[in-house]
Amino acid sequence: MAQRPLSPHLQIWKWGPHMVVSILHRVTGDGMALAGLGILLWWLGALASGPEAYAAFAGWVWPDLGTLEWSGAAIIASVIKIVLKLVLIGISWAFFSHMCSGLRHFVMDIGAGYELDTNKFWSVASPVIGIVLTAGFWALLLLK
Fold first, then answer.
1. Terminal CA-to-CA distance of the chain, rounded, Å?
2. pLDDT tens across 108-127, in order?
3. By the 8 A CB rule, do 58 and 52 touch?
4. What is the DSSP letter of 73?
């Protein structure tokens, strides 16, 4: 059998921030599609079912964390409400991170940003900007 060159493999390539951001872009898109769709459908169903159903939805997804009960069976409900709040924060982070990464790809699609230093900078900056935007978004919501 003739010796043919091997395709580049993960052991050959040196990992860089652009590779991590590419994978993160895919993961955030899938996360928004899966978790975001569940929350969206629950919200739309509650909205269409009337004020009582919407109040129940808001009570689960947007609880006042100071009024949670920590005794008996109410502990499980309180933990679920905290997890749902964390899911909302995660979905918003996924949105902002995915948006920043998408804008980075858009700029690259028009032919800019291919220089190594520029590419590396925006690869690192995209998730950081996503975190800053998420923190600002939640600060705006919670301090309102």
1. 71
2. 999 898 898 999 999 999 99
3. no
4. T
